[in-house]
Amino acid sequence: MGTLRTARHRGAAVALLLPVIIGMAGCGTEVKAVAGKAVYGQPLAEQFRASTDATGDAGTAAFVSTLTYGAAGGDAVQEAKGSQDYERGTALAELGLRAGRHFPADALEFLRASHPDGKQTVATAEDDVYVRQGDSAWLKYTPEAVDELGEATGVIAAHAAGDVAPYSGTLADLVPRVIPREKPERREDGSRVYRLTVLPEVAAELLPRDLQSLQHDWGTDPVPLTVRLDADGRLAAATADLGPVLARLHEQKVLVEVKRLSASYRLGDFGKPVKPGGPDQGDRPVEDAREVLAPLASIEDGRCAGTGGTGLGGTAIVRPVDCADGHDLRVLAQVKVDRTLPGKQDIANGDVYARTACERALAAAPEDWKRGGAYADGYSLVGSSRVGSSFAMGGGGAETTVTGDYTCYLRTA
């Protein structure tokens, strides 16, 4: 089942972090030193925790969080930009993906596959996350909705308000989990710069959920992390060079044309009024995700669904609709694979068996589904399977089992 993963669930992760590399002490003004005494007056090992409190005490702040994928033809940037109200535990942000004209097409297609089209707005209020596509209604993901709809909701649930910030899933979550070991560089304006490293498995939490799921061993190469606190000890910026994380993705033949990967986080406008526009404004209706969405695997044969407006990207979770209304797909068949084969077979998955069943379903589909241009030619297939082997008792020999669940569907033309 899915869970709302916020900073409050990650307290034990400090042990995974590596110590600071090197820092240099400089000079600053006495005024700034006094201003940041609540943070800089603490023992070095406690300064990041104190900074988290100082940042929240500001009441509000604007933020920008990015993931930048660098390639020979330019960069692609996933960005969240908005405001946070620490006192109310709320946030409002616009999410987007932009890329240079010459960014590799295959890599961009991969990034877009799990990224909703067009403008997306996300709002948080404690454990609830709201998402709005364009000018549509707000869609509310509660913890109960996440549990019911499953892991596919993780891309949204990851932003639920946590103990660190009202908008989670950024570098801000990592900072209080790091223990500084070396003195930071002190700038003339009274700010401090800390240079540290974190384990790649911790840094990988910054990736979109679909990328996180592709690798289960992130290795041990340290990820460089730079943290800057302002003169008052508040978090001002953080950056991470995710090169070691990218290297492990390359081992999976993922984003091979991307040569650089970095994350950044910036805060500013502390204490200033936040921009209105959240679901509490009442200018747009609010829908409960549990009531209007469903897993694609639960849609009956012949029924239709829309994929837009879920905030999730992909087709794992859809909005069931009447086939007479606008829709993005029509389910051909829900296919269950359950095969037992003699001997130990060299089989990677059950896709071939699912395709056979889907082709039969396509051949048997009503002619008006296949003609008139309403649907694209062929069909699409999603699902998963498991392959296992066993040895029968009594000298029966080895067996290979293939089990799985798939959905084959037509896409609108």
What does this structure look like?
This protein is α+β, with helices and mostly antiparallel strands. The chain folds into two domains: 37-268, outer membrane lipoprotein receptor (LolB), chain A, CATH 2.50.20.20; 293-411, no CATH class. Helix content is 19%, strand content 34%. It has twelve helices and 18 strands. It has helices at residues 30-35, 37-40, 47-57, 105-113, 143-149, 154-157, 200-203, 209-212, 243-251, 289-292, 351-364, 367-370, and strands spanning 60-71, 74-85, 90-99, 120-125, 128-133, 138-141, 185-186, 192-198, 223-229, 235-241, 258-268, 286-288, 294-295, 304-306, 317-321, 329-342, 380-392, 397-411. A twelve-stranded mixed beta sheet has the order 7-8-9-10-11-1-2-3-4-5-6-12. The chain has a six-stranded antiparallel beta sheet with strand order 13-15-14-16-18-17. Strand 17 (380-392) and strand 18 form a beta hairpin. The longest helix is centred in the C-terminal third of the chain and has 14 residues, at 351-364. The radius of gyration is 25 Å and the shape is globular. The relative contact order is 0.15. Residues 1-33 have low confidence and may be disordered.
